[in-house]
Amino acid sequence: MKPETAMSDHTPWYAIKLFTVRQKAVAAYFDEKGLETFIPEEYVDIEDENHKVKRVLRPVVRNLIFLKKDRDEQEIRKYVLASTFKMSVVTKSRENKSYYEIPAVQMFEFRAMCNPELTMRKYLSEEQAHLKKGDRVLVKHGPLKGLTGRLVRSNKKYYLLKEVPGMAIMIKVTRWCCEGL
Protein backbone atom coordinates (compact mmCIF):
# COMPACT_ATOMS: atom_id res chain seq x y z
CA MET A 1 0.00 0.00 0.00
CA LYS A 2 1.30 3.44 -0.89
CA PRO A 3 1.97 5.79 2.06
CA GLU A 4 -0.38 8.45 0.65
CA THR A 5 -3.21 5.90 0.43
CA ALA A 6 -2.50 4.47 3.86
CA MET A 7 -2.48 7.88 5.53
CA SER A 8 -5.87 8.77 4.03
CA ASP A 9 -7.35 5.40 5.08
CA HIS A 10 -9.12 5.87 8.42
CA THR A 11 -10.13 2.22 8.88
CA PRO A 12 -9.23 0.86 12.34
CA TRP A 13 -7.65 -2.55 13.02
CA TYR A 14 -8.15 -5.38 15.52
CA ALA A 15 -5.44 -7.38 17.30
CA ILE A 16 -6.19 -11.11 17.43
CA LYS A 17 -4.45 -13.51 19.80
CA LEU A 18 -4.03 -16.96 18.30
CA PHE A 19 -4.04 -20.28 20.12
CA THR A 20 -2.44 -22.06 17.17
CA VAL A 21 0.98 -21.88 15.51
CA ARG A 22 -0.65 -21.77 12.06
CA GLN A 23 -0.46 -18.01 11.67
CA LYS A 24 -0.19 -18.08 7.86
CA ALA A 25 -3.24 -20.39 7.65
CA VAL A 26 -5.26 -17.94 9.77
CA ALA A 27 -4.15 -15.09 7.49
CA ALA A 28 -5.21 -17.17 4.45
CA TYR A 29 -8.61 -17.84 6.09
CA PHE A 30 -9.28 -14.11 6.52
CA ASP A 31 -7.93 -13.44 3.01
CA GLU A 32 -10.52 -15.88 1.61
CA LYS A 33 -13.18 -13.77 3.36
CA GLY A 34 -11.78 -10.64 1.67
CA LEU A 35 -10.26 -9.22 4.86
CA GLU A 36 -6.78 -7.64 5.08
CA THR A 37 -4.35 -8.93 7.72
CA PHE A 38 -0.90 -7.93 8.92
CA ILE A 39 1.75 -10.12 10.54
CA PRO A 40 4.90 -8.34 11.81
CA GLU A 41 7.92 -10.12 10.30
CA GLU A 42 11.70 -9.84 10.44
CA TYR A 43 14.61 -11.33 8.51
CA VAL A 44 16.29 -14.32 10.15
CA ASP A 45 19.41 -16.14 8.95
CA ILE A 46 18.93 -19.90 8.78
CA GLU A 47 21.29 -22.64 7.67
CA ASP A 48 19.96 -25.18 5.15
CA GLU A 49 20.96 -28.83 4.81
CA ASN A 50 23.88 -27.82 2.52
CA HIS A 51 25.23 -25.49 5.27
CA LYS A 52 24.36 -22.39 3.26
CA VAL A 53 22.95 -19.44 5.14
CA LYS A 54 19.70 -17.96 3.80
CA ARG A 55 17.78 -14.90 4.92
CA VAL A 56 14.08 -15.63 5.32
CA LEU A 57 11.14 -13.63 6.65
CA ARG A 58 9.69 -15.04 9.85
CA PRO A 59 6.89 -13.74 12.10
CA VAL A 60 8.13 -11.80 15.11
CA VAL A 61 5.52 -13.38 17.38
CA ARG A 62 3.70 -16.60 16.60
CA ASN A 63 0.43 -15.90 18.41
CA LEU A 64 -0.65 -12.51 17.08
CA ILE A 65 -2.23 -11.24 13.87
CA PHE A 66 -3.79 -7.89 13.02
CA LEU A 67 -7.07 -7.65 11.08
CA LYS A 68 -8.35 -4.55 9.29
CA LYS A 69 -11.91 -3.64 10.30
CA ASP A 70 -13.43 -2.87 6.91
CA ARG A 71 -16.81 -4.35 7.91
CA ASP A 72 -19.01 -4.02 10.97
CA GLU A 73 -17.99 -5.77 14.17
CA GLN A 74 -20.85 -8.29 14.04
CA GLU A 75 -19.78 -9.60 10.62
CA ILE A 76 -16.15 -9.93 11.72
CA ARG A 77 -17.29 -11.60 14.96
CA LYS A 78 -19.19 -14.11 12.79
CA TYR A 79 -16.00 -14.96 10.83
CA VAL A 80 -13.96 -15.34 14.03
CA LEU A 81 -16.53 -17.68 15.59
CA ALA A 82 -16.97 -19.71 12.36
CA SER A 83 -13.22 -20.31 12.03
CA THR A 84 -11.76 -23.72 12.86
CA PHE A 85 -8.75 -21.92 14.35
CA LYS A 86 -8.91 -21.03 18.03
CA MET A 87 -8.47 -17.26 18.44
CA SER A 88 -9.50 -14.33 20.60
CA VAL A 89 -9.91 -10.73 19.49
CA VAL A 90 -8.59 -8.19 22.02
CA THR A 91 -11.56 -6.57 23.76
CA LYS A 92 -11.94 -3.16 25.40
CA SER A 93 -12.01 -4.64 28.93
CA ARG A 94 -13.07 -7.72 30.88
CA GLU A 95 -16.51 -6.20 31.36
CA ASN A 96 -16.92 -4.62 27.89
CA LYS A 97 -16.63 -7.41 25.30
CA SER A 98 -16.64 -5.01 22.32
CA TYR A 99 -13.55 -5.46 20.18
CA TYR A 100 -10.77 -2.94 20.86
CA GLU A 101 -10.12 -0.85 17.74
CA ILE A 102 -6.55 0.22 16.99
CA PRO A 103 -6.74 3.66 15.33
CA ALA A 104 -5.69 3.72 11.65
CA VAL A 105 -2.91 6.27 12.22
CA GLN A 106 -1.41 4.25 15.08
CA MET A 107 -1.52 1.07 12.97
CA PHE A 108 0.00 2.86 9.96
CA GLU A 109 2.95 4.01 12.09
CA PHE A 110 3.33 0.58 13.68
CA ARG A 111 3.36 -1.12 10.25
CA ALA A 112 5.93 1.39 8.98
CA MET A 113 8.17 0.66 11.96
CA CYS A 114 7.81 -3.11 11.37
CA ASN A 115 9.37 -2.81 7.89
CA PRO A 116 11.89 -5.71 7.85
CA GLU A 117 14.37 -3.55 5.91
CA LEU A 118 14.82 -1.21 8.90
CA THR A 119 17.68 -2.14 11.21
CA MET A 120 18.40 -1.44 14.87
CA ARG A 121 14.99 -2.36 16.20
CA LYS A 122 13.70 -4.43 19.07
CA TYR A 123 10.35 -6.11 19.62
CA LEU A 124 8.87 -6.10 23.12
CA SER A 125 5.91 -7.59 24.89
CA GLU A 126 3.14 -5.27 26.02
CA GLU A 127 4.31 -5.68 29.64
CA GLN A 128 7.93 -4.80 28.80
CA ALA A 129 6.79 -1.69 26.92
CA HIS A 130 4.77 -0.47 29.91
CA LEU A 131 7.93 -0.63 32.05
CA LYS A 132 9.79 1.77 29.74
CA LYS A 133 9.63 5.44 30.65
CA GLY A 134 9.79 8.08 27.96
CA ASP A 135 8.39 11.32 26.63
CA ARG A 136 5.89 11.45 23.76
CA VAL A 137 7.70 12.74 20.67
CA LEU A 138 7.28 13.42 16.96
CA VAL A 139 10.19 12.53 14.64
CA LYS A 140 11.03 15.69 12.67
CA HIS A 141 13.99 14.48 10.54
CA GLY A 142 15.26 11.32 8.86
CA PRO A 143 13.59 8.20 7.44
CA LEU A 144 11.08 7.99 10.32
CA LYS A 145 9.91 11.60 9.83
CA GLY A 146 6.29 12.08 10.87
CA LEU A 147 6.08 9.07 13.19
CA THR A 148 5.05 9.51 16.82
CA GLY A 149 5.81 7.43 19.88
CA ARG A 150 7.73 7.55 23.11
CA LEU A 151 11.45 8.33 23.20
CA VAL A 152 13.05 5.70 25.46
CA ARG A 153 16.61 4.80 26.33
CA SER A 154 18.05 1.29 26.23
CA ASN A 155 21.74 0.32 26.44
CA LYS A 156 22.82 3.98 26.14
CA LYS A 157 20.92 4.38 22.85
CA TYR A 158 17.65 6.17 22.09
CA TYR A 159 14.68 4.41 20.52
CA LEU A 160 11.24 5.41 19.29
CA LEU A 161 8.75 3.11 21.04
CA LYS A 162 5.37 2.32 19.45
CA GLU A 163 2.80 0.16 21.24
CA VAL A 164 -0.23 -1.71 19.93
CA PRO A 165 -2.28 -4.31 21.81
CA GLY A 166 -0.22 -7.47 22.20
CA MET A 167 3.24 -6.10 21.37
CA ALA A 168 5.52 -3.11 20.92
CA ILE A 169 8.46 -2.15 18.70
CA MET A 170 11.46 0.08 19.31
CA ILE A 171 13.53 1.58 16.46
CA LYS A 172 16.83 3.36 17.05
CA VAL A 173 16.67 7.12 16.53
CA THR A 174 18.88 10.03 17.41
CA ARG A 175 17.50 12.19 20.16
CA TRP A 176 18.02 15.44 18.25
CA CYS A 177 15.64 14.40 15.43
CA CYS A 178 12.69 14.20 17.84
CA GLU A 179 10.49 16.98 19.18
CA GLY A 180 8.33 16.70 22.30
CA LEU A 181 4.54 16.60 21.99
UniProtKB/TrEMBL annotation:
Which residue range or ranges hold the KOW domain?
Answer: 130-157
- One Pfam entry for this protein is NusG
- Keywords from the named record: Transcription
Give the UniProt record's GO annotations in the biological process aspect.
Answer: DNA-templated transcription elongation
Q: Which SMART domains does this chain map to?
A: KOW (SM00739)
Matching InterPro entries, A to Z? KOW (IPR005824), NGN-like_dom (IPR006645), NGN_dom_sf (IPR036735), Translation_prot_SH3-like_sf (IPR008991)
Entry protein name: KOW domain-containing protein
**Annotated organism of origin:** Segatella oris C735
